[in-house]
Amino acid sequence: MTEQANKEELNTNEKAEVINQEEQPETIEEELASESKDASEAVKNEEAPDTDTLLKKIAEQTDEIDTLTKKVDDFNNRMLRTQADFDNFRKRTSKEKADARKYRAQDLVTDMLEILDNFQRALAVETVSEDGQALKKGMEMVLSKLENALKKEGVEEIASLHQPFDPNVHQAVMQEDSAEHEAGTVIQVLQAGYSLNGRVIRPAMVKVSS
């Protein structure tokens, strides 16, 4: 092959490449512009929904929103009721625990009151002998310690003598006419009454004027 033939073949190949390049889009911008134009035409060709269809969709969405709103309201109401019930339960449990601590010694105190009564009856007996006086003094010391121990637990004697009769703290077992007192006044205490931290554990047995 001659040198002239080689030059002609190279020129032919270069012309073919130029033709191929001319057939492709010149830039990326032109491709994007073409795609955008096609999309715009497609949107224009789509039919817009009619008014009835739009109103129907709006009504359906409104109903769905109302339903969801009711569900949320019901859930909130249930949650509030549950929280209120739990708060009441917690308060009630706390009160029960506080009362249990406050009145834990009630059974023991009730039994001790009988011992206290016996000490007081024994000390009310008159004695003149030295031995009797010594025994009485020892009993007074024991009674004083017992009263102090009960007082630390919250035990208090109910004020009754010369007080108006109160059925909440007094138990009337006798009545007697009295010119010195108004009717319904406690004129004698037959058995002392006691309270534990404000709760009556034994009412006072009393005689009341009529």
UniProtKB/TrEMBL annotation:
Residues 23-33 have a biased composition (Acidic residues). The keyword Chaperone applies. Residues 1-17, 34-54 have a biased composition (Basic and acidic residues). InterPro entries: GrpE (IPR000740), GrpE_CC (IPR013805), GrpE_head (IPR009012). It is found in: Cytoplasm. GO terms for molecular function: adenyl-nucleotide exchange factor activity; protein homodimerization activity; protein-folding chaperone binding; unfolded protein binding. Pfam families: GrpE. Its main location: cytoplasm. Keywords: Chaperone, Cytoplasm, Stress response. GO terms for cellular component: cytoplasm. It comes from the Bacteria. Residues 1-54 are annotated as: Disordered. Belongs to the GrpE family. Homodimer. Participates actively in the response to hyperosmotic and heat shock by preventing the aggregation of stress-denatured proteins, in association with DnaK and GrpE. It is the nucleotide exchange factor for DnaK and may function as a thermosensor. Unfolded proteins bind initially to DnaJ; upon interaction with the DnaJ-bound protein, DnaK hydrolyzes its bound ATP, resulting in the formation of a stable complex. GrpE releases ADP from DnaK; ATP binding to DnaK triggers the release of the substrate protein, thus completing the reaction cycle. This is Protein GrpE.
